[in-house]
Design brief:
The complex is a heterodimer. Chain A has helices at 2-21, 23-55, 84-107, 114-133, 137-155, 162-193, 198-208, 223-238, 247-250, 256-265, 270-277, 279-282, 286-307, 313-333, 337-364, 382-396, 402-416, 422-448, 456-461, 467-493, 509-516, 519-529, 531-549, 552-560, 562-569, 574-621, 629-649, and strands at residues 61-71, 74-82, 212-214, 220-222. Chain A is mainly alpha-helical. Chain A starts with a helix and ends with a helix. In chain A, 56% of the residues are buried. Classes of the chains: A mainly alpha, B mainly alpha.
């Protein structure tokens, strides 16, 4: 199987290299063919691996590909770990990536950077696959930073736009803050485990669970808590959890296909994947789990609220992504890792669908993204309309669709959990359901229903997008509907993940849910009677009432609660704070150190000061050298006398 | 057969003699010929260094390719050469960089081209000599001699404030080295030998060690440069021609850190241990303080110069935190990674800083400005160049997969064993390194075309493409597979740790 695994990663890499270096020679169609074929091969192989691991129960594969380096007797290797968790991620990544590759042909049709774009998304696919297939922390970090690099390149793809190159720098730096925690976690792992190999670390972890370390003298911290929180800081950067979420909304400056692929379906879920992968460590530290839970709950609730006031179609979906990532993080916090991955999977399908459908709308609207200038698009773009409807219903957890199963499982899991913070988290995720439904259908109604608010020119050109765009939509609509019902039982209750995810018996909330679980229909019936469903329907109805029946109400509310609106519009002040405190503060400190420290003190006072004083002293001493013989003779005699008296004295 | 040749002498004297030869073609109309000869000599020198790698015995820490001849018998000064796993890669890096510098100056340097090339070739030989000298007086002579060509390069082919920069550069470094000479002579009076290996083995009391350590520190810290004796570097870089900056950053800075591993650590192990806190503090100041200073620079060369100081902080940190690792964990585990990480950082920084200065040079040759504010949107008119620049910038920011990651990663991993806060401060480079480098890239490379001059830019020519391409390959190769470089070092580093752990008291 090793060749299959190698093919999975190398096929997209090959496509990326050819499209990147020889884009001119192979032309536009050459570039999209070679990368699409590469990713398609990867996808087919991933399906084979999925079947092999999940259905045929193949043994876990854990082998090195090559030794990156040896130092201090520790081998740093590049290698693959192929277990159930990897198999699921492979399927998600390659499927969404393939759909996005095909969609890009239509979306980027007229862009001069066509080949470059295909190079980047294939390179992204490679990096993401290396990340999920890794069998050690170092390669995880490689993949982690590599997807960050490609994300940087793609957010700034239209590098002439000032907003785009601001956003990509911001994204990279905020992610680096997360990576800063991550690398310290890796260092801690190496120090205490003497290995960076997952298996070694997971095997040794229980024995080291009692260890403590002193970061601040006198305060003992559990080692696992330190490692767990530091690792999670990395996840907070990549998976955009508060307060490191600030880069994700701005990342919408990138072309829409990558918003779907990177900033919704795959890269931003890397943090979720990572924590699930590290479950043997997190199970040993309730403090870290509580920390994760609370951060996730805050993200789920408060980022969703921001979705309500956005007017850019992509930004609405971006805030929805933040909120949904919060849901996944909450699942991790209550040790329902499988539910987190389950939501990751369904979310990848319906969120990619939503983004690509939004992209289809954007094409039709000639790159107008303001939903206030849309309306009534239903009759012009029926396929996009239905796909968007499916995506939105899946997102709000409409019974039977994929999001319903995964989100309900998370809410139930939080409800069952005893871990500190679970009460608050339950409140946040339940309230979040109403908000999700509200902002999703606000956008939906404003775009597809009601008055046609676009200008005449745009209206006359409105039409459904070409088939390279609509087919991927349809292909993503299928799992958006079915994936939930299909996967809920094996993933959550039948132990599909095997030993890939470890949960301590006393944390195992999914097992509690499993006892009550009596089939898909039972789950649906139970769900329809529970508060989350009613809240979702209430949200939908409110959106319908506000934006279809009485469009004057939202404006009134906006006026009445202008302060709240301001707070939301300014992203709770995060951006302003970061800009003035971190960015501005660093520049100020830099100028201070440069102008005062280097220029005034070191150079001015010491270096040039020494030079000046040498000059000054010599300018005085110069007068001693008069050139008169009798002056010199006099000096010599004085000196001689002094020496003689010294010699006599001793 | 190759092994029988005095390889080290060949790689030292070939460029020096070649450099003198080039001087015979110093008329303006002979410049093309001078260039060809200089290129041939530099390539030949580089080819001659390859057997040093292929014939290197990785299993021993003993000096290899040793040459020994009496030089000044009256003072027991000898022409003693040899390399180990620390110096051998540096020699290859030196010869490699010189080839690139010769090509980089090809049609750019029109004024006294022969003298320019000659200076670089002679410096090539002298620098290789510094890395292979096993006699401290030979080392010292070459160390000082090396200043002369660099002094001329900045002083003759430099920018507007070149006189200030050269004098600052010369006085700073010269002043530093004098202390080293005093220390060397003292040790000679005690042991009767100027041999570096003899000095490593001679017993020394604590006070002696501390004084010797401080004397070395002044000499080497200026060269690295370490905070607070670093202010000559930005000035020297800004005024130096591109080639001078490349050699300065890629090789000459490594002389200082090389001195620490060749002299300070093995000759004065107890003093090193005693004063390791000082070295760690200075290194961390370099990493953090200088990163902030780099952030606000308006001149690209200055920014890269400060970035160099910050990155060299990792080298000195790696060397001197080994004692803290031992003190904290009670084990030598981790010391090897610290030192090897620092050594890898030296090589990697040679590639990356060289590449960054060449990138600025490519732009300077077209625009005659180094000011960030004069640029903007270069990617529009120079897309190939922009790709290279972004790659090297990412390497400078320590992206995994590039060489810039390897050394920093190893040093941070090892630092955690010394102290959480050392690792914490060192790891801030992940954020600050990315901030100053990518902010510069944003303002220079990306955006709308800023002005007519940028609009008129032409992308890299074949010569420039070749230089940047070779460096890109080197940066990626070392980043994706550092194992071969590390394998060369293991035996030497293990021996160094043994020496350091063995108290002389």
């Amino acid at each position: 199987m090793e060749n299959v695994y190698l093919t999975i990663v190398l096929a997209p890499l090959f496509g990326a290299i050819v499209a990147g270096l020889f884009g001119k020679q192979i032309g536009r169609s050459g570039a999209h063919w070679i990368t699409i074929i590469g990713v398609a091969i990867s996808f087919v192989m991933s399906v084979i691996v999925f079947k092999d691991v999940i259905f045929d129960g193949a043994a876990v594969y854990n082998q090195a590909v090559y030794t990156w380096m040896v130092s201090d007797g520790i081998r740093f290797e590049v290698g693959f770990l192929i277990d159930q968790l990897t198999a699921v991620m492979l399927l998600v990544v390659t499927f969404v990536s393939l759909m996005v590759h095909i969609y890009t042909i239509g979306y980027m049709k007229d862009d001069p950077g066509y080949q470059r774009f295909f190079c980047y998304i294939s390179l992204f696919t490679f990096s993401m696959l290396m990340l999920v297939m890794s069998n050690n922390f170092m390669q995880l970090f490689f993949g982690w930073e590599a997807v960050g690099l490609v994300s940087y390149l793609l957010i700034g793809f239209w590098y002439k736009r000032e907003t785009a190159i601001y956003a990509n720098l911001k994204a990279f730096l905020v992610n680096r803050v997360g990576d800063f925690g991550f690398i310290l976690a890796i260092a801690a792992v190496l120090m205490y485990f003497n290995s960076l190999d997952y298996q070694d670390v997971f095997d040794a972890a229980p024995a080291l669970a009692g260890l403590t370390m002193e970061i601040i003298p006198g305060v003992e911290w559990s080692l696992m808590t330190v490692i767990g929180i530091l690792l999670f800081i990395g996840a907070m950067g990549k998976s955009a959890q508060v307060p490191l979420h600030v880069w994700l909304p701005d990342s919408m400056e990138g072309p829409t296909p990558i918003s779907a692929l990177i900033h919704a379906a795959t890269m931003v879920t890397a943090g979720i994947f990572m924590v699930a992968r590290m479950s043997p460590i997190y199970e040993l530290t309730e403090t870290a789990l509580s920390f994760i839970l609370i951060i996730g709950a805050i993200t789920a609730l408060f980022m969703g609220m921001l979705g309500i006031i956005q007017n850019d179609i992509k930004r609405v979906i971006a805030y929805s992504t933040l909120s949904q990532l919060g849901y996944m993080t909450v699942a991790l916090g209550v040790s329902a890792y499988a539910a987190g991955i389950f939501h990751l999977l369904t979310h990848a399908a319906f969120k990619a669908l939503l983004f690509l459908a939004a992209g289809s709308v954007i094409i039709a609207m000639h790159h107008e993204q303001d939903i206030r200038k849309m309306g009534g698009l239903k009759k012009y773009m029926p396929i996009t309309y239905w796909c968007m409807l499916i995506g939105s219903l899946a997102l709000i957890g409409f019974p039977g669709l994929s999001g319903f199963f995964s989100k309900d499982a998370i809410i139930e899991a939080v409800h069952a959990s005893q871990i500190p913070g679970a009460g608050f988290a339950y409140f946040a995720v339940v309230l979040g359901v109403f908000i999700t439904a509200f902002y999703s259908f606000r956008m939906f109604f404003l775009v597809f229903h009601g008055q046609e608010r676009m200008d005449e020119h745009t209206r006359s050109h409105l039409h459904e997008s070409p088939r390279v765009v609509t087919w991927p939509l349809l292909a993503l609509a299928v799992p958006s509907v079915l994936a939930g019902a299909y996967f809920i039982e094996p993933m959550l209750f039948a132990g599909m993940f095997g030993d890939a995810i470890y949960v301590k018996p006393e944390h195992d909330v999914l097992a509690q849910l499993g006892e009550r679980y009596n089939g898909i229909w039972g789950f649906i019936v139970h769900g329809v009677m529970a508060p989350p469903f009613l809240l979702a329907m209430a949200g939908l109805a409110t959106a319908a009432f506000f934006y279809l029946k009485r469009p004057d109400i939202p404006a009134m509310i906006k006026d009445r609660f202008s302060l709240v609106y301001k707070v939301l519009e300014n992203n709770y002040g995060f951006d302003a704070f970061n800009d003035s405190f971190f960015a501005g503060g660093s520049r100020k400190l830099g100028r201070l150190l440069s102008n005062v420290g280097d220029a005034k003190l070191i150079d001015g006072l010491i270096v040039n000061g020494t030079a000046k004083s040498v000059g000054w002293i010599s300018s005085k001493i110069r007068f001693v050298q008069t050139g008169y013989l009798y002056h010199y003779a006099f000096a010599m005699i004085v000196g001689l006398l002094a020496l003689i008296s010294l010699a006599v004295g001793f | 057969m190759l092994a029988d040749l005095p390889l080290l002498s060949l790689v030292i004297w070939t460029p020096i003699i070649g450099g003198l030869l080039v001087l015979f073609f110093s008329k303006d109309e002979q410049a093309p010929l001078a260039r060809v000869i200089a290129l041939a000599v530099s390539v030949l020198t580089f080819l001659l260094t390859i057997p040093l790698w292929t014939g290197f015995d990785k299993s021993t820490y003993q000096m290899q390719f040793v040459e020994y001849a009496s030089w000044i018998p009256a003072f027991n000064i000898n022409y003693h050469l040899g390399v180990d796993g620390i110096s051998m890669p540096l020699i290859l890096l030196t010869a490699f960089s010189t080839v690139l510098v010769v090509i980089a100056g090809w049609e750019v340097i029109k004024y006294k081209a022969a003298q320019y090339l000659s200076a670089f070739l002679i410096m090539d030989g002298l620098m290789i000599g510094v890395f292979s000298a096993l006699d401290s007086i030979l080392f010292y002579v070459l160390w000082e001699a090396m200043l002369i060509p660099m002094f001329l390069i900045i002083g003759i082919w430099g920018g507007e404030r070149r006189v200030y920069a050269t004098i600052k550069f010369f006085l700073y470094t010269f002043l530093g080295s004098v202390f080293m000479l005093v220390a060397l002579i003292y040790m000679y009076t005690q042991s009767g030998s100027f041999g570096i290996l003899d000095m490593q083995n001679m017993p020394l009391g604590m006070t002696e060690q501390i004084l010797i350590f401080l004397a070395f520190l002044i000499a080497f810290a200026v060269k690295v440069p370490m905070w607070p004796v670093h202010t000559w570097l930005p000035d020297a870089h800004v005024e130096a021609p591109t080639g001078g900056s490349v050699i300065l950053a890629a090789i000459m800075l490594k002389m200082g850190t090389y001195g620490f591993v060749r002299f300070s650590l093995p000759i004065t192990p107890d003093a090193s241990q005693q004063l390791d806190w000082l070295m760690i503090v200075l290194s961390l100041i370099a990493v953090v303080y200088i990163a902030f200073v780099a952030l606000v620079q308006k001149d690209m060369k200055k920014l890269i110069a400060y970035s160099s100081i910050s990155h060299m902080g990792f080298v000195t940190l790696g060397f001197f935190m080994i004692f803290a690792i031992y003190a904290n964990t009670g084990s030598t585990q981790g010391m090897g990674m610290a030192i090897e990480g620092a050594l890898v950082q030296m090589i990697s920084h040679g590639f990356i800083s060289g590449a960054m200065f060449l990138c600025v040079g490519v732009m300077y040759d077209r625009m005659h400005s180094r000011q960030i504010a004069d640029y903007g949107g270069v990617a529009n008119t120079m897309p190939i160049f922009a790709s290279f620049m972004v790659l090297f910038a990412m390497a400078n920011a320590g992206l995994p997969g590039t060489s810039g990651f390897v050394g920093e990663f190893m040093v941070i991993l090892a630092a955690f064993k010394a102290n959480f806060w050392i690792a914490f401060l060192a790891a801030t480079t992940l954020i600050f390194g990315a901030a100053y480098t990518l902010w510069m890239v944003k303002r220079v490379i990306f955006g709308e075309v800023a002005n007519d001059k940028v609009a008129a830019l032409k992308d890299v020519n074949r010569r420039e493409f070749f230089i940047l391409g070779v460096l890109a390959v080197a940066v990626l190769a070392l980043g994706l597979w550092p194992a071969p470089l590390l394998d060369v070092m293991h035996a030497t580093v293990d021996h160094l740790i043994e020496q350091v752990m063995h108290s002389k008291l």
